[in-house]
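To whoever picks this up:

The nightly regression suite flagged Alpha/beta hydrolase as changed. Nothing in the input moved, so I suspect the structure step. Input below, exactly as stored in the fixture:
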Amino acid sequence: MSTQQAPGIQVAVHGHPNLDTLLLWHPAVRTEPDAVGALASRIATRSGVRVVVPTWADGGDLLRSIRYARASSVHPPDQLSVVGYGEAGIAALSLALHQRRLGIGLRRVTCVDGAADLLDPVSGQPLAAPTPASVETAVDVVESDGDWAQTTVTAWQAAQWAATLVPSAQFTWRV
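Regenerated output under the current build:
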């Protein structure tokens, strides 16, 4: 693992620099950095990816981490995957929706621990309804309490996104 200071944000990088990049947005990085670091190392080792973990406080930090992950990748920057937990998961979904406007491309986004009452920390707004996909980004939503995850996946599928509901029992990337 290497820890670096990207412009305006601290990041930890796990895995070989020549591997595909996964950007991991986990809110526990602020309170349990060692646990999130161990999770990132496991993901890097088991999945064969380079994991970039920013220490973020707000939506601006999340956007800075995207710029860092893209600029530091040896692979095409539009092959980035993003996994977000809680409100950062909502931000990952929002990022998928707005990627063309932001001038980026994404391979996959994953929302873990999402819920209807969470706001996107980048915009400060609830997650917008998905519009028809003009990109080939895969969207995963991990099952959560209630029916929010299923309802969300159904809405994304109706908008022609490649969206999948991931059973929580099969998702192992927990701190």
